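Re: [ENG-882] Designed sequences occasionally contain unexpected residues at chain ends

Forwarding the minimal case from QA. Structure tokens:
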């Protein structure tokens, strides 16, 4: 079950995401992004992409991850469809290693809904409250 909800925002798209782990928070955030940008009815020629990112903070890592998927869609015309694996390590910095599945837009029966110009840091704060991680993400449209 993907735990996110789109909330009203004056000019942008805002989502609140909650999850039982940091990895699931990132995964649910990706699906919130996907629901905001596309309606997928089918896809062919699915391929995997490996994504590795590092950052000094969880918030920057999340923005970077979502921004990478947004870049793949808007510039490379490659649409993320599914998270196959996602791991986050914490040493002196946060390191994300993910394998995502997707396809080129011409291989997908997809309705693009909204173009996200940027994933913002506005009101971004990943909180750990007991057994749950929470954040709010604002997508600049």
């Amino acid at each position: 079950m993907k735990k996110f909800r789109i909330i009203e925002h004056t000019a942008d798209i805002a989502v609140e995401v909650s999850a039982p782990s940091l990895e699931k928070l990132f995964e649910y955030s990706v699906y919130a992004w996907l629901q905001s940008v596309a309606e997928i009815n089918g896809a062919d020629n699915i391929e995997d992409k490996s994504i590795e990112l590092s950052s000094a903070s969880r918030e920057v890592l999340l923005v970077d991850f979502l921004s990478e998927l947004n870049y793949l869609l808007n510039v490379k015309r490659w649409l993320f469809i599914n998270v196959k694996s996602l791991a986050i390590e914490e040493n002196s910095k946060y390191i994300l290693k993910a394998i995502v599945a997707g396809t080129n837009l011409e291989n997908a029966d997809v309705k693009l809904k909204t173009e996200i110009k940027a994933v913002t840091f506005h009101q971004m704060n990943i909180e750990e409250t007991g057994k749950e991680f929470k954040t709010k993400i604002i997508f600049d449209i």
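QA comment: On inspection the terminal residues look reasonable. The chain has one domain: 4-140. Proposing we downgrade this to a documentation issue.
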